[in-house]
Amino acid sequence: SETAMLTSASKVVDPVCGMTVSADRAAGTATHEEKTYYFCSTHCLTKFRENPRAYVAESTPSEKSEAHEH
To answer: Which residues contact 1 (CB under 8 A, 6 or more apart)?
Structure first.
């Protein structure tokens, strides 16, 4: 479907570190409150699963306390 094609080719932002990743190449995904989030690494996915509310609040990645380098 057209929606599936848009999703697979779209760029998304990892809510944990703020890195931009391709949805079709994400290291993992998680769903929280009916929204799917995409991750650059399994480390970010694990951090999100431990406390998703810490990463879906209205803030920028630079305000996150546990940013990491890639």
So the answer is: none
pLDDT exceeds 90 at position 24: yes
Beta strands 20-22 and 11-13: pairing type? antiparallel
Q: Give the predicted TM-score (pTM) of the model.
A: 0.69
Residues with Cβ within 8 Å of 8's Cβ and at least 6 positions away in sequence, in order, are 23, 24
- pLDDT for res 57: 73
- Buried-exposed string 9-42: b where 16+ CB fall within 10 A, e elsewhere: eeebebbbbbbebeeeebebebeeeeeebbbbbe
Write down the residue that tokens 């990645």 correspond to. Answer: 61
